[in-house]
Amino acid sequence: MLATLVPLLLLAAAAPSVDERREIETTVVGIFRSYAGPPGQKTFYDVNNQREVPVGSSLRELSLAGVALCLTNLASLYRARHDDEAAGAHLREALVICERDGLQNTRGYALANLAEVTMKAGDLDASTGHATRAVELGETMGNRVLTGWMKIHLARLAVRHHDLDTAHATLRAGTEIAVALGIPALKTAAVMCFAELLHAREEPAAARAVLAFAIEHPMTNGPDRDELGAQLEQWGEQPRAHWPALGLDELMHRIVVEADLAHAPLRALFQD
User: Same structural domain for residues 89 and 188?
Assistant: First the structure.
């Protein structure tokens, strides 16, 4: 099976368009499913060796893991096309497989992406549930990337619930991990959350300045830059605050150390 599927997965990764990648990934999911069989099935037919194989075999376990992984990859492709409804359907299916068969790494990825998809759809309760479970899983597994990612996400949810004290504290926890790991995407998420906090505190000029800083910073990747740009456009063209003499490292440091002060000293810099 692997001799057939590995080239297909490599082909999907190298495909020049999202549509071609999605078509290849869908094919791979179908192949994996043919090996895995339906839940409750006691044996399945190994077409390569032309024999029945017990359900508990390593081949079936690999097939289930492959189905879940390909479903999450398909979800990412749909998200890239802004089709969150299709992405959510694939992620929920992947999550069912992961929880049934103990595939914890892929489960964390599915939960985190479901948290983002449901927040974008306005289902804040569902998003909170997915993110909370993802943080618990990340802490249990020692997956600090997942933990940091979802703590920042929970801070963004707290902003949307107008629970700003919780937002400041949770953002600090996520930003500490982002700084420790040095992952640009986590740092971008932390800066975006801080901008949302400023906007929720009715400091829109400062919020726009922070978003503009993140958009222009080389750490920010293309999809994140597009998301930040869309948010800036949504907030309107009103004047933004003058950017203080503040680099990324100092900004991140102050997001961490000033959380107990609701970031008041940092916020004051944008009022000068």
Answer: no
